[in-house]
TrEMBL record:
GO molecular function: ABC-type amino acid transporter activity; ATP binding; ATP hydrolysis activity
GO CC entries: plasma membrane
Full protein name: Amino acid ABC transporter ATP-binding protein
Membrane topology (UniProt): Peripheral membrane protein
Residue ranges of the TM segments: none
Keyword terms, alphabetized: ATP-binding, Cell membrane, Hydrolase, Membrane, Nucleotide-binding, Transport
Entry-linked InterPro entries: AAA+_ATPase, ABC_ATPase_HisP-typ, ABC_transporter-like_ATP-bd, ABC_transporter-like_CS, MetN_ABC_transporter-like, P-loop_NTPase
Compartments (UniProt record): Cell membrane
SUPFAM superfamilies: P-loop containing nucleoside triphosphate hydrolases (SSF52540)
Amino acid sequence: MITIRDVHKRYSEHDVLNGIDLDIPHAATVTVIGPSGSGKSTLLRVIDVLEHADKGTIDFGDGPVDLATRDKTTIRDIRSRIGFVFQNYNLFANKTALQNVTEPLIYAQGKSRKEAETIGREQLDRVGLADFADRYPSTLSGGQQQRVGIARAIAAKPELLLLDEPTSALDPEMVGGVLEVIRQLASDGMTMLMVTHEMRFAREASDHVVFFEHGSIVEQGSASDIFDHPSQPRTAEFLQSFAS
């Protein structure tokens, strides 16, 4: 179980996260849904210390760690346990798909190039891109670039995979391939925390769904609880508006 406790984040006078408590069971997919601007992506960035929390902790099972830390060693330790899949891929344009996957293994984990390339090819194969290892991002579709991003994130065998609206930048015809990769990761037992606007996928792929608004958790429960029997009127209103 990964536990996140009392996470706060403020920009100027605006509270973005208001004391978030969240449990992420091992090998589970927890999905955060909610309106744009509600703080969902900020939550992921704070968990990975891409942005510093004002307050809050994360515990991977061996004791709470301060998410407001500025200590570089602590930040590196948190990030070494987390993989992050970004909305807009964040690939290096001047490096091949294989290099995008292998270079973090070489420079952040100290693996030999040979070992890193073996891992990289295995992960590209895992996301269906074994034949694209030597291609540059500019020659790949958006869906293929996102799958490279997923391969990069899982190559280091993270304890937690964060996915920040992984299909939001894709044309509709490219979404299916990425969602299928995520579905396969879930079936393989990857522990994931995902923000998505794909409601059908959230319902099908999630063990636990969290409805988020104004930096707070409005309600949470199983996918069937949230989608079929929401207890809060605001949750029901959001889902109904999405359906329409």
